[in-house]
Amino acid sequence: MSQIDWIVLIATLGFIVVYGVYKSRGQQNMDDYLLAGRSLPWYHVCLSVMATQASAITFLSAPGQGFASGMGFVQFYFGLPLAMVVLSITFVPIFHKLKVFTAYEFLENRFDARVRIFTASLFLISRGLATGLSIYAPSIILATILGWDIYWTNILMGSVVLIYTVSGGTKAISHTHLQQMFIVSAAMFMAGWMVVHLLPANMGFSDALQMAGKANRLNTIDFHFDPNSRYNIWSGLIGGFFLQLSYFGTDQSQVGRYLTGESIGQSRMGLMMNGLLKIPMQFLILLVGVLVFVYYEFHSAPIFFNKVETDKLKTSIYAPNYAQLQKQHEQLTEQKLQIAPALQKALAQQNNAAIDQYQTQIKANDEALKGVKKEVVALIKKNNPSGDTSDINYIFLRFVLDHLPVGLIGLLIAVIFSASMGSVAAAYNSLASTTVIDIYKRGFRPVASDAHYLMASRVATVAWGLFCIFIAQYASKLGSMIEAVNIVGSLFYGVILGIFLTAFYAPKIGAKATFWAAILGEIAVVACWYYDIMAFLWLNVVGCLLVVGFAWIIQQVNLKTS
Amino acid sequence: MASNTDIDPRDGFPSFVKTWRQMYTFVIGSLLLVMMALYLFMQYFK
Is the CB of A221 less than 8 angstroms away from the CB of B27? Predict the structure, then answer.
C-alpha cells in the first residue's frame, strides 16, 4: 500500500473511533451504557442492525460470489423481510413492554431463572467463539494479501473497536455504525463506478450487464426446488426465514440493537426499513463482483486469487503439474480475450446469430477455466491438506490492489476494517450485557449501585474483547477452526430458537417442561452431530423442532401425573 | 402474547400508511415486487 492509502486508512479509522467516543461521552447508568438510554430514532436502529449483520466477510466474500457464480446468493436474503414482520409483531412489543436489557431476561419472566441462565450461557459460548472468528477471518485475508503479520492484524482488528465500545457503550456503537455504513456504501459505490470506468472504452454499464447476462452471471432467481442447490427461491424464503428469525430474535447482538429504539414504533420501523433495504444492498454488492467478472473477460485473470497458495505450489513437488495447468489457463485466457470483444461487437450490432454463437463459446470457455481451477485446487489440497482451497474471499481484494487507484485502495481496506468493527462492537456489547445482566446481576450481585454495574459492564466488555482476540490468535493455528465454530453455532442456535418459539407460541407449556426439553434437545443435537447423522446446517432445524416437541410431550406427561 | 399489530401510537410511521398492518403488507408487497423485478432483470439480460 502507498503512503496515501495508509493516510486514508488511518484517518478513516481514527475518525470513527474519535467520533464514537465524542458522541457517547457522559454515560451514567446501565440503561445509557447498554441500550443508549432507549432513545434512538428508527434510522439509527436500521443502520445499526444492518452494520451488525454485515461483517467484513460480507464485503470480501459477496463480490467474490458475484464473480465466481453470479447473483444467485441474493436469494439467501428473501426470508429476511418476512422475519422482520414476525419480529415486529411478536418479539419487539414484548421486549419493550418488559423493559428488558437482554432477550434472555424475558425467558425468566415467561419461564424461570434456570431457562434464562441456560439459554444465556448457550449464547455466550457460541457468540464468543464466533466473534473470535469474525476477527480472524478478515485478518487472515488482509495478512495474506498485504503481507501483514497475522498476530498484529488480529490485535489491531479486535482492539481498535474496544476503545469506543468500552468508553461509549451502545451509544458509541450506534453512532459509529452510522459512519461505518456511510463509508462502506460510498466506497462500494466508488469501487463499482471504477470497475465500469476500467472496462474497454466503448463499453458502458448496460453493455457490461449484457455481457454478464450472456455469461450466466445475472442468475438472480432459481425456481427449481433442489435440496442440493444452496441458493434457490425456496431455500431463501423458507430456510432464510428461520435463520433470520433465530438470528434477529434470539441473538443479543441484534436484540441489543433494536432495543435502543425510543419506542416500539421506532424499533419496528428500523426493522421494517432493514427488511426493505437489505436485498437491494446485497444485490448491489454482488453486482460489483459481476462487474469485476466482466472486467476479467477483457483482461487476464489469475488462475487462483490466493497467491500464497499458488506460490507454495511453485516450489513443491507438484510444480511441473502446476506449470502444465498454467499453460492451459493461458491458452484458455487467449481464447477468452478474442471471444469477449467479438461478443461485445455482436451485442452492439444486435446480431442475434453471432450473439448465440459467442454466448455458447464464452460459456464453454468459462467452464473450461473453472475445470482448470478445480485441478489447481486439487493440487493445493494434495500439497497442503490444511491449505486454503477457496479463493472467493480474495477475488475482490486482489482486484482492488491490482487495479484501483491510490487512495481508493486505502478507503476499501478501511471498509473491511469498518465492517469488521461494526459487527465485532455489537458482539462485544452483547456479550458484556448478557454476562452482567443474566449472569452477574442475576446470580451473584442482585443489588448494587448503577455505577457498580456500569463498571462491571466495562470490565466485561474488556474481558470479552481479550477473549475474542485470543480465540482469533488461536484460530490461526487451527486450519479447520472456521468449520468447527460453524458447527458449534449450529449445535446451540436451533435449541435457543426452540426455547423462544415455545415461549412465544405455546403459552400452556411451563418452565420445567421447557428446561428439560432444552437439555434433551441439546443432548440429541450433540448425538446427531457426534454420530454424523446429518449435515451440520440441519442441526438448527432439528434442535428447534426437538425442543418444541419435547416440551409439549413433557408438559402433557406432567399434566397427567399431577 | 402480543399479536395485536396496532397497539402503539403512530410514531415512526411514514405518511403513506395508517396502521402497522398496512406497513407489514407494504414490506411483504415490496418483497414480492423485488423478486419480480429481479426475475425480469435476469430475463432481460439473459
Answer: no
